[in-house]
Amino acid sequence: MRNPRNDDLALAEPASHVPARTCILTRRKATKDELIRLALGPDSTVAPDVRARAPGRGAWIGLTRAELDEANASGKLKRALQRAFKTNAVTVPADLGERTEAALRQHALDRLGMEARASNLINGADRVETAARSGKVHLLIHAADAGEDGRRALDQAWRVGGGDPQGLIFPEPRTILSMALGRENVVHVALTDPAAASRVRHALARWLAFTGPERGL
């Protein structure tokens, strides 16, 4: 029987020399995987860069959406960005918080889709239950509108197989989960590859940490 907690610790353990970034508003230091990058575009407009791949100058934030919206409305965010970018030519969209949340959501959905195409996950209650009981599931996910009885049965199967006490509730209904995976009527998803499970868990955690504790994992 696998030990999922040890698996997760091994996967989540950061490299000893991963450089830290600093949130421009809270001054909290963290790795770039824990923060969100904001990029300054050629037109001086700030945009979320949740994959941290956009060229040019960037600044890092570690806030919830409510905190970001408040800082944006008060002008505190713009002033912090002007200092970070060393220019007054900074335009911050009023809906930056909404754009950031949408980008994090899309990144999580894309991550699930990539793992599905790589055959790193399965769906269907019977298949998920069999894999969970045999210790082959590294992350269990339920659609937001999954039935309580179905969730409870699969959670129990995962515990029997050495998994966590319960699966994660995906913050969207089965229609969205199905579209992300390119499959029909996806209610329950099991990640059967430990590295894939870590990637999906991280993408979901970033999204839900930004939206606030009421939707956290």
Strand order of the largest sheet: 6-9-7-8
**Average of pLDDT:** 91
Q: What's the structural domain tally?
A: 2
Number of strands: 9
Q: What's the CATH first level of the largest domain?
A: Alpha Beta
Distance between the termini: 25 Å
**Going by CATH, what is the homologous superfamily of the largest domain?**
Ribosomal protein L30/S12
Please state the CA-atom Rg, rounded to the nearest Å: 19 Å
Shape: elongated
Q: Helicity level, as a percent range?
A: 40-55%
Set out the fold topology.
Layout: H1 4-12, E1 20-22, E2 29-31, E3 36-40, E4 46-49, E5 58-61, H2 65-74, H3 76-85, H4 96-117, E6 121-123, H5 125-133, E7 139-142, H6 148-160, E8 168-169, H7 174-181, E9 188-191, H8 194-211
Parallel strand pairs: 7-8
Antiparallel strand pairs: 1-2, 3-4, 3-5, 6-9, 7-9
Textual characterization of the structure:
With 217 residues, this protein is α+β, with helices and mostly antiparallel strands. The chain has 2 domains: 92 residues, Hypothetical Cytosolic Protein, Chain: A, CATH 3.30.1230; 111 residues, 60s Ribosomal Protein L30, Chain: A (2-Layer Sandwich), CATH 3.30.1330.30. It has 8 helices and 9 strands. Helix 6 links the parallel strand 7 and strand 8. The longest helix is centred in the middle third of the chain and has 22 residues. The two termini are 25 Å apart.
Quick tags:
217 residues, alpha+beta, Hypothetical Cytosolic Protein, Chain: A, 60s Ribosomal Protein L30, Chain: A, 2 domains, four-stranded mixed β-sheet, 8 helices, 15% strand, disordered N terminus
